[in-house]
Amino acid sequence: MQTLTPHVHWAQRHAELYLRVELSDAKNLEISLQENNTLQFRAQGHGAKGDNEYEFSLEFLQPVRPEISHKSTQRLVDIKIRKQEERWWDRLTLQERKPLFLAPDFDRWLDESDAEMELQAKEEEKINRISVESRVRKDPYLGLKKGYLFMYNLVQFLGFSWIFVNMTVRLFILGQDSFYDTFHTTADMMYFCQMMAVLEVINPLLGLVKTGFFPSMIQVAGRNVILFVIFGSLEDMQNKPVVFFVFYLWSTIEIFRYPFYMLACMGTDWKLLTWLRYSLWIPLYPLGVLAEAVAVIQSLPIFDETRLFSFPLPAMLGSSLSFSYTLQLYLILMFLGLFINFRHLYKQRRRRYRSRKRKVQ
Q: SS3 of 205, please?
């Protein structure tokens, strides 16, 4: 079999040399650096003269490091070599006359001034990154803040998981009968979780999280109105099936949201959990608001009948103003809040996947 020389293209940076060998489907690769600073290449593959054994040698202008990395693809062989000293070479080989098989790699080619600018940009990026990291490290309470947020999200995850598992097990065992005693079996834990959720309104104000104050306030306040005012104050509402659907939708959302934030505190990103966190809310959040609206509508005649929370009026205007009128106004505000929060969550989702796409590119 005839031995031939492949086409080789080269480029350089201050610290590295790049060789691109035009040899497809290369097999039996042998790449080594000899004691006289000469690179030896031998392989079998498809080159300019068809399938043959190809080889070449290059004696470099300056010393290089013995570690040589290479990557073989179906089209070519890429070789990267580190220079012993980071400096610009006038040419690649010790001999002044360039070998016939060697040519510049214009896809990677830079002149010395362009390479200086690239090196300077990398140095500036490194300095900026170190500066940012040093500013972050200057916060003496960073570990304490992350520990607090991790524990908060862990406690909420465990609480909502208990509610979700309890309701799911009772649903499988009792069927539809479990709808009517949901409040009595899970209300204590739901009270605890929703009182803890008030911290989600405080955390943005303290700068502990980057989420907005207003969307958090809308969600926490809306849920607490349903839990404490509609369900908690009216015994007639506590046995209705709508309690099951409200609690189940709330807990389903939260058993994915809180673990996502727990992992974020540790700088960890689990792709499946991230997708669930930024996708499940799209159907579940509107369904949750719809279930809350049903609960409000069902409570209106009860508030009219019991006159609970009614506003006293002067004698000339009547005895009192039913709280149900306030809840009717609240229904309008509820769907306005749905629009605001849905828009906020959609922006979060788009921003999250846009930044991830940039990282991949």
A: helix
Whether 287 and 331 map to the same domain: the answer is: yes
How many independent structural domains does the chain possess? 3
Does the annotation count 285 as an active-site position? Answer: yes
pLDDT tens digits, 166-218: 999 999 999 999 999 999 999 999 999 999 999 999 998 888 887 778 878 88
Q: Which of 148, 180, 191, 285 is catalytic?
A: 285
Same domain (yes/no): 103, 124: no
Its domain, for residue 99, covers: 3-107
pLDDT digits (tens, 9 = 90+) for 212-228: 788 788 889 999 999 99
Distance CA 175, CA 268 (A): 39
Is 86 part of the annotated catalytic residue set? no
**What is 62-94 written as a DSSP string?**
S-EEEEEEEEE-SS-EEEEEEESS----S-SBS
Q: What is the pTM of this model?
A: 0.59
Catalytic residue among 258, 278, 292, 330: 292
